[in-house]
Amino acid sequence: YAYLEDGSYSGKRSYRRGMKHGEWVDWYHNKQKSFAGTYKDDKKTGIWTWWYYSGEKMSTVEFRDGEIVWEKCFNKDGSERDCSDLFDPNDPVREEP
Q1: What is the end-to-end Cα distance of the chain in Å, rounded?
Q2: How many CA atoms lie within 13 A of 1 on its CB side?
């Protein structure tokens, strides 16, 4: 588990043999979910979802062996948007804190 500086719970982390493995979930300070997804042998796999601080879905991304297979991104009103406008390929939002 992960904790914020104030000691409150901020996320779930799973490891196996020293590698990220299993469900990973993180929450913002306001208790809204920030992201959720799964690691397998230190690589993102399956569907990962990110949310805006206000709780609306920001993006859904499918990973296979740590690589993006497809992604859909959304404005706060739920309409689709271009993911390149939302994420820089090196943006830390795609990484765990």
Answers
A1: 12
A2: 6
